[in-house]
Design brief:
Shape: elongated
Largest sheet: 6 strands, mixed
Number of domains: 2
Distance between the termini: 119 Å
Number of helices: 4
Radius of gyration: 36 Å
Strand content: 35-45%
Length: about 300
Amino acid sequence: MKNLFYLLLLIYTFSFPENIKGQNTGIGFYPPLTSLCVNYDNDTVPCNIQSIEQLQAISQIIGPNAFVNTPYSDTILFYANNTFNVNINNQLIELEFVSAEITNVSVPDGMIYYCSSDNCMFYPNEWGNIIVSGSPLSPGNYSLDIEANITLNLAPVGVDADVSISFPYDGSNELFNLALGGDYSSINNVIPEFNLNVTGSIYGCTDDNACNYNSEATEDDGSCSFPEIYYDCNGLCVNDIDLDGECDEVDYNDGIGIEEKSLCAPNLITIIDIYGRHQKEGIKGSLLFYIYDNGKIEKKFNH
């Protein structure tokens, strides 16, 4: 029977729910809702993985698409309990997890990886981040292979010593092989393959103020077009109170149509004479100026 090695928790996500971090998550793999999971029969299956058994049935995790020459950032969250469970001869043995050091993550050209912890070291019952970011240079399907050095203590199997193994494990540590009973084939199957699909650029207008804005465009091609001042993208006035096709900003009849004139007559503000003195009413034989609230000034000579 294959030895079952409960290895670690890796979370590949854009927006990992914060409430998960506060729970006793255990060891497993919890992909985001936007991921695509594929099993060993090459069938697409739900990504709501809740147990190690479900995890082992997944062959690969495909994250959200990236685009050529377009900034991309994603985070792999790392977590491991303080014990690993190993099934040896149908007996469950708990090995002590000491630490894990991420030594490499293969990323497309134009991208890098870095960790939230010093030297990419992670310890029991701690969350850590592996950030993959940058602008990929070429399209293609890339495997984000994660390499690590994992240190375990074998005291539960009678060997009170720390043992470091590389991941993916190649069977090179005889002491560890002995502890496992010689079968380590199931270890590397615990972590699915991570894939990142990089597609070519989508050219179009990327300015959301333009009339021909393309929300799917990843690279601006200089094709953006904008409406003339005072008009919308359909060639209609943004403001046209009298619906005469002439925008209010340049409609010198103040935007008031004939039918509305009686309803929207301007209000008289004040009356002044030629000396600038305010008058309450017309004075016979004088020249007066009537000032209205729409800016209109009317000159009248009272006989």
